[in-house]
Amino acid sequence: MDRRRLMMGALLGSGAMASDALAAGSPAADSGPDIWAAPRLPPRVRVMSDNDYAGDPDGLVQLAHLLLSPTVDVRAVIGSHLRPHDPLDPSPDVAEKAARIARQVAGLAGREGQVPIIAGSNVGLADGNTPIASAAARAIVAEAMREDAKLPLYVTCGAGLTEIASAWLIEPRIAGRLTLVWIGGPEYPDLAPPPPGAEEMEYNLAIDPIAARVVFNDSDLDIWQVPRNLYRTAIASRSELMLRLRSRGELGRFLFGRISRVIGLIAQYGFASSETYILGDSPLVLLTALQTPFQPAPASCAYVTRPCPRLSARGRYEDAPAGRPIRVYTSLDTRLLFEDLFAKLQMHAEGGQVA
Question: FRET label pair with 187: which of 2, 3, 272, 305, CA 20 to 30 Å apart?
């Protein structure tokens, strides 16, 4: 087996052939350590990050992590809306505010002016047939329809689905050209029970139930879903956030301060302070940026593939045996997720160029 075949085998993802190449002392083996320690790594995926950045600060932690991930080509950051009169931010221009806060995080992450940051719609869909042709929805369409881009495209949503639903309504051909990774939706009855006192409609789904029904019931978009029972497992303690987030430079202090602000806000509504905080949007980075080098995939996370259910008007799943396949995650590698987050924050705080 000659060197060219050995190197091609490694590039094409054969772990066994890669080991053979290393044993044979190929040029790729000699240059590997220097390449991996370089200030920048070549991108492996494209990501468009859509989140309610003026709401729960778990989205901001996710954004900081994403922007510090060197193999991600962040094509756009989209500030999306909350439910009307949401206590986290009841303002009518919440999407614009979300974009402004996202710009703060980008600046603190050393990425000011490097990534397009766009405000999405301030309201949800009025019906299931009429898109909101926001700049954000049009940006999703434009990126998905590019013919010159070879890297896989992920649209990661940590809140409602207004922009991706609108994008599909504007141009249905985006299906098959991107993967939607969504943090949201209730538990599947055969996989997990709901948490105590859970609202009937899961929070992110409730931001725009019509958009969620467009995505699940009408579209043919590829979906990776992290439902409520699973995103609640991305949980960090107060003490580790004080030691490993707040102490990690200006960016870490900013993120910790946003979490503290929400803790104070919910205390006004009678919720007791806890020693933990759910960083439920962080799996968006785990499933995209932290894939394996060979046979790229989120290899340490488990999922089931099943027919995509229909969503009822009340936000419940209805069996649809003929539905297209949907990937529903059932376990997350939170060790990899949080250790990578804290390591990147530390490297950035110490002046090392991460992304």
Answer: 272
Whole-angstrom distance, CA of residue 291 vs CA of residue 324: 24
109 and 217 inside one domain: yes
Q: Could you tell me which residues are beta bridge partners of residue 276?
A: 237
- Inter-residue contact 165 to 215 (CB < 8 Å): yes
* Chain position carrying tokens 């992110």: 204
Q: Beta strands of the chain (E only): which ranges?
A: 45-51, 72-79, 117-119, 153-157, 179-183, 222-226, 235-237, 276-278, 302-307, 310-311, 317-318, 325-331
How big is the CA angle at 236 (ends 284 and 80), to the nearest 5 degrees? Answer: 40
The mean pLDDT of 21-29, rounded to a whole number, is: 49
Shared domain for 291 and 184, answered yes or no, is yes
Domain count within the chain: 2
Question: What are the tens digits of pLDDT across the range 67-103?
Answer: 999 999 999 999 999 999 999 999 999 999 999 999 9
* 355 in any annotated domain: no
| Cα–Cα distance measured from residue 79 to residue 221, given in angstroms and rounded to the nearest whole number | 21
- What is the pLDDT averaged over residues 155-182? 98
- Residue 354 counted as domain residue: no
Pick the closest to residue 13 from 297, 293, 298 (CA basis).
Answer: 293
- Round to whole Å and give the CA distance between 284 and 275: 24
Angle, CA of 109, 114 and 117, to the nearest 5°: 90
Q: Is the pLDDT of residue 352 over 90?
A: no
